[in-house]
């Protein structure tokens, strides 16, 4: 999963099919500059206030109200916000320092809100750091090389925080905090994964429903424009076998075919070969085969690798044109190993399957009996 850019997905929330729910938010905020707190919902760049409470002299407050639906809300204290996830019957208590509520806040009664705010603090700190580095470089471009090592270390640390947060909050509404750092145009797979988890854990949220609809629309558009999308016919081609005879991909219809782009000089390909061999041996009698397309340019090295790696299937082809391979260009191959799993009718099942993912898919198709 790639965490590359900061793109905020916040829009008007549709609640036409939602039912009001009762919630309670109370607690104690000391050192507050404001004399009131408000329960609000964000709509675009604006906040819509739902209810509020005066802060007592000792900082106590209590809001008991109804909200339009289970969804994402904020408690606002002056210019500061605390993100809240409210469900039917939520009874959340908040204790914090109003002078720095973002850093010093304890949320009781909603672990999802606690986790979301903890990650938001990490995210905000990263944004501040990136902005500060960019400001230094803008003022003195010669500092760019000096700051590179430190920046890369900080970036790695932040990415580790992101991965740990996702792992610890699977199918949790807290993952909504991740949406703002995924650009679906760069990492649609990551965006889809998080959105599906949100739907699994918080399907009653209109915000999640809208995000899921957006994801499905984007996926449909991507599929329509992707020649290798699941369900589409695999582009046919004809290439030479080692003995000079010609073999077409369509000649293998009737079998499940793993189209495997590789080369003798490709280390990751060679390391993956034992797994492909094992799966071929396991499923070849059930209708599975492999068509290996080599990007080699030295025939002897190609044939030697086939022998050394015990690639016993008969479907080895290559035009020995390296990255100019016609089949590789047809399939848009920019790196190897690159695989395409194709069903008995010649339709694409999935691409880029390797290791356990390939084994799992073949097990699903053929079973292990």
Structurally, how many domains make up the residues? 3
The percentage of residues in β strands lies in 15-25%
* Mean pLDDT rating: 91
Low-confidence stretches: 1-16
CATH superfamily of the largest domain: Glutaredoxin
What fraction, in percent, of the residue positions are helical? 25-40%
Q: Helix/strand-derived class?
A: alpha+beta
Biggest β-sheet: strands ordered side by side in the sheet: 13-12-11-14-15
The number of strands is 15
Secondary structure elements and their pairing?
Elements: E1 21-30, E2 36-43, E3 46-54, E4 60-67, E5 71-77, E6 80-86, E7 91-97, E8 105-108, H1 111-139, H2 144-168, H3 176-179, H4 188-201, H5 206-225, E9 238-240, E10 246-248, E11 256-262, H6 267-283, E12 288-294, H7 299-308, E13 315-317, H8 326-330, E14 338-342, E15 348-351, H9 355-366
Parallel strand pairs: 1-7, 11-12, 12-13
Antiparallel strand pairs: 1-4, 2-3, 2-5, 5-6, 7-8, 9-10, 11-14, 14-15
Explain what you see.
This protein is 37% helix and 25% strand. The protein is of the alpha+beta class. It has a five-stranded mixed sheet, with helices on one face. Helix 1 packs antiparallel against helix 2, helix 4 runs antiparallel to helix 5 (206-225) and helix 6 (267-283) packs parallel to helix 9 (355-366). The protein is elongated. It starts with 20 loop residues before the first strand and ends with a helix. The model is unreliable at 1-16 (pLDDT under 50).
Outline:
Strand 2 (36-43) and strand 3 (46-54) form a beta hairpin.
Based on the model shown, name its key terms:
Immunoglobulin-like, 369 residues, 9 helices, four-stranded mixed sheet, 37% helix, five-stranded mixed sheet, elongated, 3 domains, disordered N terminus, Glutaredoxin, alpha+beta
């Amino acid at each position: 999963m790639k965490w590359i850019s900061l793109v905020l997905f916040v829009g008007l929330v549709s609640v036409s099919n939602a039912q009001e729910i009762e919630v309670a938010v109370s607690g104690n905020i000391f050192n507050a500059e404001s004399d009131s707190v408000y329960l609000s919902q964000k709509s675009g760049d604006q906040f819509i206030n739902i209810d509020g409470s005066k802060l007592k002299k000792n900082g106590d407050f209590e809001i008991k109200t109804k909200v339009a639906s289970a969804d994402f809300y904020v408690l606002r204290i002056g210019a500061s916000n605390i993100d809240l996830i409210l469900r039917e019957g939520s009874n959340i208590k908040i204790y914090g320092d109003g002078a720095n509520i973002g850093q010093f806040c304890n949320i009781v009664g909603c672990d999802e809100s606690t986790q979301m705010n903890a990650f938001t603090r990490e995210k905000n700190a990263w944004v501040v750091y990136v902005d500060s580095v960019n400001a230094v470089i803008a003022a003195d471009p010669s500092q760019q090389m000096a700051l590179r090592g430190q920046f890369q270390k900080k970036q790695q640390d932040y990415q580790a925080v992101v991965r740990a947060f996702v792992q610890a909050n699977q199918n949790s509404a807290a993952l909504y905090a991740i949406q703002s750092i995924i650009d679906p145009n760069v990492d649609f797979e990551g965006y889809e994964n998080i959105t599906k988890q949100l739907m699994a854990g918080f399907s009653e949220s209109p915000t999640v429903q809208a995000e899921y609809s957006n994801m499905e629309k984007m996926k449909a558009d991507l599929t329509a424009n992707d020649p290798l999308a699941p369900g589409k016919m695999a582009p046919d081609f004809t290439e030479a076998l080692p003995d000079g005879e010609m073999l077409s991909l369509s000649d293998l219809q009737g079998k499940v075919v793993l189209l495997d782009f590789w080369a003798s000089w490709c280390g990751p390909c060679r390391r993956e070969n034992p797994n492909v061999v094992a799966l071929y041996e396991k499923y070849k009698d059930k209708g599975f085969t492999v068509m290996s397309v080599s990007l080699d340019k030295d025939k002897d090295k190609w044939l030697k690798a086939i022998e050394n790696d015990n690639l016993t299937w008969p479907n080895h082809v290559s035009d020995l044109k390296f990255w100019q391979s016609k089949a590789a260009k047809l399939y848009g191959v920019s790196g190897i190993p690159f695989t395409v799993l194709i069903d008995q009718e010649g339709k694409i099942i999935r691409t880029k399957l390797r290791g356990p993912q390939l084994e799992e898919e073949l097990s699903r198709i053929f079973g292990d009996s």
